[in-house]
Amino acid sequence: MYDKYVSPLSERYASREMQYIFSPDKKFTTWRRLWIALAEAEHELGLPVSKEQIEEMKAHQNDINYEVAKAREKEVRHDVMSHVYAYGVQCPKAKGIIHLGATSCYVGDNTDIIVMTEALCLVRKKLINVIDELARFADSWKDQPTLAFTHFQPAQPTTVGKRACLWLQDLVLDLEDLEHVIGSMKLLGSKGTTGTQASFLELFDGDHEKCRRLDQKIAEKMGFSSCYPVSGQTYSRKVDSRVLNVLAGIAASAHKFSNDIRLLQHLKEIEEPFEKSQIGSSAMAYKRNPMRSERIASLANYVMSDVMNPLLTASTQWFERTLDDSANKRISIPEGFLAVDGILDLCLNVVDGLVVYPKVIEKRLMAELPFMATENIMMDAVKAGGDRQELHERIRTLSMEAGRHVKAEGRENDLLELIAADPSFNLSLEELQKAMDPSRYVGRAPKQVEEFLTEVIRPVLEENRALLGVKAEIHV
C-alpha cells in the first residue's frame, strides 16, 4: 500500500462520508438505479418492458459484479457498456432492455448531478454546524472588548463576539448561495446522443408527449423535480462551474477566518485547540503553531484555484459535446468537494476549541485606549471650562509625544499622565483613568451581536435543528 500515490484528500483531510459519495460503489449503484428508473418509466409509458424484468434488475441493484465489468472493459474499452454487459450477466431476462434508448451520458451525467447534489447537501449540513458553533462563540464573547484593527493598525475597540459575527456573516452569504444552487439542480434526463431524444421518439412511435413524460418520470424517481429542458448529449458544463464557485466561496470565507485566527494567535489573544501531546515544531519545543488554521488556508487556496477547471471545460465544449471534459471532471469536481469537506471539518474543530485570553486582550487594548479616548477626554475638559480648539491642539501634541515614548523609547503609553500634568485640561489622573472603561468605546457591538444572532442566525438554526450536532474528526 506504500508503493503508489494516494491522494492526501482521502488519506488526511476528507471524511469517510464525503469519500463514499464520490466512490466507485456509489457511482455504479447509481447507474443501476438510473437503469431501473428508465425501465420503470418505459414500462409505465407502454414500451415492452415487463415487471418481471424490472424486478430482476432491482434484485441485483447493489451486488455489482465488478470483476466481470472490469474484464469486459479491457476488451471493449467502454466503461458504460462494460457495466451494461455485467448487469445483463446477472439479469438474463432483463438483458435486452437494460439501457434501452439511452446513451452513455444517461447514466454518466445524471449520476454526476445526483452525486454533486448529495455532496452539496453534506456541505450544507457541515456549514450549518460551523455557523452554529460560531454563533455560540459570538454569544459567549459578545461583551468582551477587544482592540479592532483597520489595515492591521489599532483602530477603535470592538468586541470578540462582534468580530466572530463578521466571520458568521460571510458563512451566511455562502449558505444562501449554496441553497440557491442546490435548489436549481436538475437531472439531464433521457436526451439521447445529441439531446434531441430521437431514439426515444422512435421508441414511442413519434409521440412527443411520451418523450416529455419520460424525462419527468425519471426525474421524480431519482428525487428531482425536473430535468434541464434542453441539452446536447451532456448537461451544460456551466453547472459544474456554478457548483465549484459555491465551494470556492466557502473556501474564501474559511480562509479569511483562518487568517484572523492565525493573526490573533500571534497576538496571544485567541488560540486554536492544541492537544496535550501535540508537537508544534521539531526544533522549537515551546512553539504552538496554528496548524489547523494553516491547513484551512492551504486547502482553501486549492479550492479557489480549482474553479478554473470547470470554467475552462465549459468554455471549450464543442457543439453538442466533446470528451475533453471527462478526465478533468473526474479530478476537479470530487477533489473540490473533498477539500471543502476537510475545510469545514477543520473549521468545526477549531471553533469548538477556541481559547480566549481576556487578560492579554485587555492589556493590548488598554495600551492603545488612551489615544482612542481623546475625544471623550477633550469633551470632559470642555465641560470643566476648557477651550475646545486649544484643547484639540494640546491633545494632538501630547498624543504625538506619548506615541514617541512608546515606539522610540519602548516605554508604556503615558498619555494620561501627560494630560493630567497639563493645566489646560484641569483633569486629575484619577478622573482620566475613570474614563478608561473599554465598554464605553465599543459602540453598539454587543447589541449588534444580539440582534444579528436573533434575527439572522437563530432562524437558520431553528429551521435546520435536525442537522445540528455534527462533530468533526481530524485525522492528522
Describe the protein:
This protein is mainly alpha-helical and 476 residues long. It has helices at 8-13, 16-21, 24-44, 51-59, 66-76, 79-90, 104-140, 160-184, 198-203, 208-221, 238-266, 291-306, 308-315, 326-352, 358-372, 374-383, 388-409, 415-420, 429-434, 445-463; strands spanning 145-150, 153-159, 270-271, 355-356. It has a two-stranded antiparallel sheet with strand order 1-2. It has a two-stranded antiparallel ribbon with strand order 3-4. The model is unreliable at 281-287 (pLDDT under 50).
Question: What's a quick, concise take on this entry?
Answer:
The protein is mainly alpha-helical. It has helices at 8-13, 16-21, 24-44, 51-59, 66-76, 79-90, 104-140, 160-184, 198-203, 208-221, 238-266, 291-306, 308-315, 326-352, 358-372, 374-383, 388-409, 415-420, 429-434, 445-463, and strands at 145-150, 153-159, 270-271, 355-356. The protein is built from 20 helices and four strands.
